[in-house]
Amino acid sequence: MTDSTSQAWAALKALEKPTLAQLFAAGDRLKAFSEKLDLPGGAIRFDWSKTHLDAAHVAAFETLAEITGFAQRRAAMFAGDHINITEDRAVEHTAQRGVGRESSVEEAEALHLRMKGLVEAIHQGKLGEVKHLIHIGIGGSALGPALAIDALTRDGAMVDVHVVSNIDGLALEAAFRACDPATTMVAVASKTFTTTETMINAASTLDWLRSNGVADPYGRVVALTAYPDKAVEWGVDETRVLPFSESVGGRYSLWSSIGFPIALAIGWDEFSEFLGGAAAMDRHFLATDGAANLPLRAAFADLYYTHLRGCQTRAVFAYDERLRLLPSYLQQLEMESNGKSVMLDGQPVDGPTAPITWGGVGTDAQHAVFQLLHQGTVLLPVDFIAAIQPGDDLSPDHHRNLLANCFAQGAALMAGRAAKDPARAYPGNRPSATMLCDEINPATLGALIAFHEHRTFANGVMLQINSFDQFGVELGKEIAKAIVAGDAKFDPSTEALLAEAGIS
Questions:
Q1: pTM given for the model
Q2: Which terminal CB of the chain, N or C, has fewer other CB atoms within 10 Å?
């Protein structure tokens, strides 16, 4: 960490920390910290007024962003420079949405056209009757498609998609029970086409098709990979291999051919709207400076709570059943990206990086974890996400009460309540932010996901870490392979567990 960066952090830590009540009493918080961004498909209001950010902290964080080269790193990412220095790669998921280096955008458009052709051929019945797709992947190859499909097919899907990621055979058997082998296709999603869990699940799925009378199981497979030669070598016809660029990271890949199951489920037009919503957020992030940049402002609040208030977790609650998988998606995006302990120069980080991301769905979470949020001893920031337009056709009482509960929780966390009985007292002064969408549709979902991608990147830049590698997941995988191969010795506890389970 440079002297100037250390000084910027020292200046931040020296600032006074007013309460939320004091901040609201001091001026127009809504004008300064709540903004509606017009996007394709409808606006989203980003309300950070119930956080402890004030003008002094914002100015100090803007200084930190300048010192750490935020504008330069942002420009380098969109230009296709190799900002992933540990793997010597560009970071070009935005090019999949049409924003980035011209040659990369052109390549992405060409690969999208290839995917579009296959999607439309399936929809038109040119590959026979296809009612089901079993999509096999793990990590970013599964979490993104699962989120988007669950959110956008509540009124029905053009093809019934089952996303399988877990190596536990129960997950795959559940998909088998839901699908007719005679009308099922398989998507195998793996950047390297070597991911152990994915390839074992894929082999078992081919066995299932074969044992149920499908003469050519490989003819049912679509491969989604950055290494098409490996997919062809495995047995997939090259006409059904949908490549994507190696510069697209796994947890940022749902915009690429990894999004094939999304497009198959919702149709190409809606998939294009999904990309368009994300691209609109890209343009805002690229063109807007300082705290007016909404993902950057959110990163200021994130760093405020981790570094200035010692918060080790951040909670996300979606007050919309369609977004029930968003907390799980954000766990990987944020914790795999910024869960690092060394800086870009290889030196140890000075302070915390990513908090633990967790969450749930309102109003279920209110009857499970909100007791701790309101009266527990742990301070943690909370994000609420909701939509003005309901996703159901039932009585308006459902959605009115859903939104009332969402807004009530933020108000209660901030205001608290005094009481003579300490057991009934609420301390208040507890922060939250709210993202309120006009409605949930492909474009607004795309924008929400892109917002969190850029928020994560902004955090990484100011922490001076590389948000785009994930070596931390490798050690456990290597040890698992050694266990399966039976060629390694471990500590007594692990050896005893292996022996008891019968896999030593």
A1: 0.97
A2: C
